[in-house]
Amino acid sequence: MSKKIVIAHRGASGYLPEHTLQAKAMAYAMNVDFIEQDLVLSKDDVPIVIHDIYLDDVTDVAKIFPERKRSDNRYYVIDFTFDELKTLQVSERFNPKTGKQVYSNRFPVWHGDFKLHSLQEEIELIQGLNTSTGKNIGIYPEIKAPEFHQKENKNLTEIVLKVLSDYGYKTKKDNCILQCFNAKELERIRKELKSKLFLVQLMEFKEETKQLVHFATYADGIGPWYRQILSEKEGDKFTFTTLVDDAHELGLKVHPYTFRADDLAEFSSFKEMMQTLLIDANVDGAFTDFPDKVIAFLRK
Ligand code: CA
Fold first, then answer.
1. The dihedral sign for the CA sequence 85, 138, 221, 258
2. Residue 149 catalytic?
3. Nearest C-alpha neighbor of 258 from the set 232, 233, 293, 231
4. Distance 175 CA to ligand 1 centre (A)
């Protein structure tokens, strides 16, 4: 894995509703290196590909099962069976309180016919396409909210590892990268569950950058928030923290999130973001909602 990799973040989610099979097929056709799967368990222990433990900001669950919300007024994936989840319509992401779509220039809310699906269904799509096209595009699954699942007496990690193994993803050669924000859980995956997969420790907070030496005892890479890499802007050039160099010295790959052409924050253009992080900061890959744009940039 020496070239810079492009990871389709929730699929080609800048163009189609996130984590739908359509968004994954579109990402596949863009020739990404990896396609991401966020994973949450259903009531009957099926790993569902969805970003949050909630259903009400990407589906019509509030309309179809109004009585099934919890006391916090949210609807949880874990309270529904796989068959029930399959009856829901999936939409472009919206604010459940206002109904307003989160990224206003993306695919319109409530258009099209989209459904939730399992990890198995998505792997069969990607492996099927690998067979029919002769390509070898990888998967990049994420164990979501392990503490929440444990509190609900659910073994998300064990179930996911079993599915991955059943479909041939067992070692670092098998084109699968497993990611998690929870450091204890990712360490357990390596040290107790003896996984031989390529593991990436996701990071969000500043204090975590002091944990790199420990992360390197079980992980093969880190997935930082891109702002953990930036220091400040001097004139029109950014300066960087030591995170990327420190990680590389420990042999860790660096795959920051999230490259969004329609959410630039401190960058004046998407090109500047890509140049700054991928080339100047020298990271090893990018989680992006717009894989075609990152691939076109890297090709030049
Ligand atoms: Ca994710």
1. negative
2. no
3. 293
4. 17
Reply yes or no on whether 255 is catalytic: no
Question: What is the spatial distance between Cα 209 and Cα 207, in angstroms, rounded to a whole number?
Answer: 5
CB burial string 107-129: b at 16+ within 10 A, e below? bebeeeebebbbbeebbebbbeb
Token code pair at residue 233: 């802007």
Q: What architecture does CATH give domain 5-299?
A: Alpha-Beta Barrel (3.20)
Element (H, E) at 41: strand 34-41
CB-CB neighbours of 60 under 10 Å? 15
Verdict on whether the full-model pTM lies above 0.90: yes
Choosing from 19, 51, 117, 149, the catalytic residue is 51
Judge if the upstream peptide bond of residue 59 is cis by omega within 30 degrees of 0: no
Q: Is beta strand 230-234 parallel, antiparallel or unpaired with respect to 237-240?
A: antiparallel
Cα(36) to centroid(ligand 1), Å: 7
Q: Which residue has the tokens 């590892």?
A: 161
How far, in Å, is the centroid of ligand 1 from the Cα of 289? 11
Residue 11 Cα to ligand 1 midpoint, Å, equals 10
Q: What is the pLDDT of residues 17-48, one digit of tens each?
A: 999 999 999 999 999 999 999 999 999 999 99
